[in-house]
Amino acid sequence: MGYRSLVLIGCFLLAASGAAKRKALIVDGQNNHKWQETTPVLKRLLEQTGLFDVEVATAPPKGADMSAFHPDFKAFDVVVSNYNGDAWPAATQAAFEAYVRGGGGFVVYHAADNAFPEWAQYNEMIGLGGWGNRKESAGPYVRYREGKIVAENKPGPSGHHGKAHEFRVEIRDSAHPITAGLPRQWMHAQDELYDSLRGPARNMTVLATAFSDTSTGGTGEHEPILMVLSYGKGRIFHTTLGHYLPALECLGFAVTFQRGVEWAATGQVTQPVPEDFPTPTGVRSRPLGRD
Ligand code: ZN
């Protein structure tokens, strides 16, 4: 049975049980990435699960007056950030902190972890961030070495990636609902492999890493790729994956994103792992625009 069939059965069960869909909000509007092209893909991936009604809040463009940007975060079960741009107004920041602390779900997608280097509570939520002149004051580097996650406080910049390439993602915690049932290793489609992120890294569990090979311009370290965090009563899923469309077409990205958003929203994952999930040696992609 294929993924499509499983999704259809999932939708039927959901409908039969009469469960209400969860409300998801994607925030975009500024990014050094093509948010106009990636937000519709993220929205579609969430809608394909049958679990979410999805809205989008688009901030004013860079340099414009931000004072009226104030999404009603608390009206949603989960907020997905596809935003990397100007600071939000203080009242919007405070509302977002209160939303997550009070039990709201938050999903950090790719360059959203570049955002807001000066906003301390945002960095507590994302655990690790990059660029934006972050350095040792932002917190340690976090890597997987000799069987465990280690933090390293040496001086240095934060945020880097080598040449985009296919790479193997390695699950480091298979007990978490997001990663339960996934192959321990799987090949990811061509993407940026973020390295050298720094941050407070508190209340954070690294679910998956990838080896950043020096031959592709990387660090020679196993770098964090998927993380979960808690902030107050809130649940946070952080995926560094998804630079652009080839990466978003990867079933490994799609499935971990869909499961991560569900977990952030509810604390559970009800979606089955599709049979055509990528293997330790083979990328599996689903062209955009198809179910
Ligand atoms: Zn990128």
Short précis:
The chain has 291 residues and is of the alpha/beta class. Helix content is 23%, strand content 26%. It has one domain (3-266): Rossmann fold (3-Layer(aba) Sandwich), CATH 3.40.50.
Bound molecules: zinc ion
**Which spans of ≥5 residues are poorly predicted at pLDDT below 50?**
none
Q: What is the name of the CATH superfamily?
A: Class I glutamine amidotransferase (GATase) domain
CATH architecture: 3-Layer(aba) Sandwich
CATH topology: Rossmann fold
Describe the biggest sheet?
Answer: 9 strands, mixed
Structural class: alpha/beta
Describe this structure in words.
With 291 residues, this protein is of the alpha/beta class. The protein has one domain (3-266): 3-Layer(aba) Sandwich (Rossmann fold). 23% of the residues lie in helices and 26% in strands. It is built from six helices and 13 strands. The chain has helices at 3-17, 35-48, 90-101, 120-126, 245-248, 251-266, and strands at 22-28, 52-58, 78-81, 105-109, 141-145, 148-152, 160-161, 165-171, 185-191, 194-195, 204-212, 221-231, 234-239. The two termini are 14 Å apart. Bound molecules: zinc ion (ZN). Zinc ion (ZN) binds next to loops.
